[in-house]
């Protein structure tokens, strides 16, 4: 059975040599344990933060220990009365093909609801992040102009579609013409902006948002945030969900100071962590599931095949290789 270890704390963008693939003996479950076979493994931008030896809202990874993330696994052997062979579960698990668990933190998934990888995306933490970030901080009103960055990604594509469901004008910012076309044609966003080719991003946002920006769902931070802030309306809401443009920086670049704009526009800018809202997961998942069933919401997945591709898939997030949720199929 294969495992991916964390071998080296990267400076800058992670590389394949920061990880090591090893083979181990197949583990066998003790009394009260289950044996889990990973089926789909999530790779996520925030894992980059855990590669730093810094205090954060989640423990840093330890060198020479397995990586971990959310996984959809199948119970292949059970010595725990709460689980049966054949059950599918999600949980924060190690990057191992096979592992044992006492069942703590595992949630059974209803395989009739959606295909397995969806439980790592639209019906998992990324869908919840989109829904709850908008709900708790965004306070969307019909007619608002909503801007979202990382717009063709896992969180961003759900954010924009919820905006459409709520009757907003949606503008998405993404890194390629293909992604821009996709969010306009498949998701019906009013406008997509390619931040890699826009000559003057601030102006491109002003042109796309003729009534200004009421809500900005920020997945990327940095210069894109600066450009959106220059276009906000009175009482705008800015959701600081992610800052992927900074995750590989060794020195955080200094930009224009936001306080002047925030005061003048009496705007709210608030950090958001999905993990602080566990008590709201149930209703949020029911709503996301209902929209999926009604066809109001769709989703993309970039499925990379092969357990040994985990490091490559993870690094691909920082190169914009994915449309929608990036997962590895074991
Ligand atoms: P995505 O599916 O959006 O994948 C990452 C995307 O980020 C890439 O596809 C790429 O798209 C874009 N990107 C990469 N580098 C840069 C850059 N330098 N500048 C701008 N864009 C870049 O990932 P997720 O949907 O899983 O996560 C989106 C964001 O939300 C992340 O910042 C993540 O950390 C955050 N997040 C926060 C949570 C919370 O609780 N606060 C929970 C979950 C996610 P492109 O081609 O467009 O550049």
UniProtKB/TrEMBL annotation:
Residues 14-328 form the Enoyl reductase (ER) domain. InterPro entries: ADH-like_C, ADH_N_2, ER, GroES-like_sf, MDR_fam, NAD(P)-bd_dom_sf. Keywords: Oxidoreductase. Its EC number is 1.-.-.-. It holds the Pfam family ADH_N_2. GO terms for molecular function: oxidoreductase activity. PANTHER family: PROSTAGLANDIN REDUCTASE (PTHR43205), PROSTAGLANDIN REDUCTASE 1 (PTHR43205:SF7). This is NADP-dependent oxidoreductase.
